[in-house]
Structures are given as structure tokens and as C-alpha cells.
Amino acid sequence: MPREIVILECSEARKEGKRPSRYMTTRNKKTMQDKVEKLKYNPSLRRHTLHKEIKS
Q1: Sequential DSSP letters for 14-47
Q2: Do residues 25 and 34 touch, judged by C-beta distance below 8 A?
Q3: Terminus of the chain with fewer CB atoms < 10 Å: N or C?
Q4: 55 pLDDT exceeds 90?
Q5: Which of 11, 13, 4 has its CA nearest to residue 46?
Q6: pLDDT in tens, 1-48
């Protein structure tokens, strides 16, 4: 299968001592070889933050 499930974790929450939020998404391995980065909402920080792909 060319698609794989990846987990995105907030990159700003741990710096502020809050709980990081996590989201699950998919990516196409053939077209996207880089790690996924998206702006997603973090409820503990109450704002949109950069979420980066973590090792699953």
C-alpha cells in the first residue's frame, strides 16, 4: 500500500509545560518522502500550533 498512517504531535506544548495534542492522518509514501507538518488546533494551548510527524 502506498498510504501509511502517521501521528502528528504538537511541537510547542512541551516547551510551555502543557500536554501535547496528537492527531492521526495518512500520507502517500511515493509522493511525500519528507515528514508531515501541519497547523492543527491544540486544545490545551487554545490556539493553532505546528504539529510534526513523530516516529510511530
Answers
A1: GGGTSPPPEEEEEEETTT--SPPEEEEEETTTTE
A2: no
A3: N
A4: no
A5: 13
A6: 789 999 999 999 999 999 999 999 999 999 999 999 999 999 999 999
From the CB of residue 22, how many other CB atoms can be counted at a distance below 10 Å?
13
Range of the domain at 10: 3-54
Strand duo 47-54 + 37-42: pairing: antiparallel
| CA separation, residue 45 to residues 4, 27, 52 (Å) | 28, 26, 16
How many domains does the structure of the chain reveal? 1
Residue 21 and residue 40 in contact, taking contact as beta carbons nearer than 8 Å: yes
In the numeric block, which cell numbers belong to residue 17?
509545560
CATH number where 21 lies: 2.20.28.120
